[in-house]
Amino acid sequence: FTCNPKWSEITRELLLYQTAADRTDLTARVFHMKKVSMAIWKNEILNKVVAYIYVMAFQKRGLPHIYL
Hints:
Elements: H1 8-11, H2 24-46, E1 55-57, E2 65-67
Protein name: Helitron helicase-like domain-containing protein
Domain Helitron helicase-like: 1-66
InterPro entries: Helitron_helicase-like
């Protein structure tokens, strides 16, 4: 699961001259929101989940991504 700077939740909040890299606060918030919604979605499909784990990776350049 990789953060996409072209997600509509990010692009509709940017000003004309801004990019997702300029608004790291917005990008991180949308990424976290999608991560949580993905976990909820997986719980519904898998029925009863005992536990789940994810690893969040940050790189020197680019956007964060998780392994779920």
